[in-house]
Design brief:
269 residues, mainly beta, 13-stranded parallel sheet, seven-stranded parallel sheet, 0% helix, 49% strand, globular
């Protein structure tokens, strides 16, 4: 929480939180060795009419360039809400980097916690690897980079009447031992053999122009970029995806969606 850290409910109204920088341990290459919440870190976030911009997070693991919501683990509150707010031009850099704009931890297994984004803008946030010399390029072969605008690790997500555009994810592409992709664009949810997302609901929103940039090498001037492709929504291991209608969405990747077996009334898009 470079700008603000709250062990409880962070109630923020008419705030501007900008130019804060969290720096963790670059040498720790585990996903838990890093820094979280460039602008805000809180168990539960309730934000109205705020600007969160120009914040950064850097470390071996990095998450929530603008906002990091733990998910109400100890507060009793089940919903983090961002309303009428702008989360723009925040940056995270790490070998394991998630959520350039917003990261929602979801509260953990068995906790029906939620992240709601209402009438807000999440734009031009950036997820990328740390700066490395060329001889360490192979280190990028272990990394993950997901969710340029918004990332959720579990729980529930609702995006309503919002604009999520022009967020960027940079990284070295690979597939994991489970044949899962390690990169995802604008809105992304977790995947894996121990994670699942309850639902993702999007209505009256614009989610376009978000991109993934594949790094193919390092030269003295920085990273060499191979292909660039649009990637707006990655549902990850979600059980239920619902469009509430009136959306403008570019690319949706359903490649890892789950189907709950034995649920006779289950339905999804």
């Amino acid at each position: 929480g470079a700008g603000l850290a709250v062990w409880g409910v962070a109630n923020l109204v008419d705030c501007a939180i900008y130019d804060n920088h969290a720096v963790g341990d670059d040498a720790d290459t585990s996903r838990d060795g890093g820094a979280y919440g460039g602008g805000i870190y809180a168990d539960t976030v309730v934000m109205d009419r705020c600007i969160v911009s120009g914040n950064s997070v850097q470390g071996g693991g990095a998450a929530g360039g603008g906002v990091f919501s733990v998910g109400g683990r100890d507060t009793g509150a089940t919903t983090s809400t961002i309303r009428q707010s702008s989360i723009t031009e925040n940056r995270i850099a790490g070998l394991f980097a998630y959520g350039g704009g917003v990261y929602s931890d979801g509260g953990g297994i068995g906790r029906a916690t939620r992240i709601h984004i209402d009438n807000s803008t999440i734009a031009r946030n950036l997820v990328e690897p740390p700066a490395l010399p060329p001889f360490l390029f192979d280190l990028l072969n272990i990394g993950y980079w997901r969710g340029g605008g918004l990332y959720m690790s579990n729980g529930h997500m609702r995006v309503q009447s919002s604009t999520i555009v022009e967020n960027q994810v940079f990284g070295r592409p690979r597939t994991t031992e489970l044949q899962k992709p390690n990169m995802a664009g604008g809105i992304a949810a977790t995947i894996g053999n121990a994670h699942a997302v309850e639902d993702m609901i999007i209505g009256h929103s614009i989610v376009v122009g978000n991109t993934v940039h594949q790094i193919t090498g390092i030269d003295p001037g920085g990273y060499t970029i191979g292909s660039v492709y649009p990637h707006d929504i990655f549902t990850g291991s979600v059980f239920y995806f619902r469009s509430m209608g009136y959306n403008r969405i570019g690319v949706i990747d359903f490649s890892q969606i789950l189907v709950p077996i034995g649920e006779p009334v289950w339905a999804s898009l």
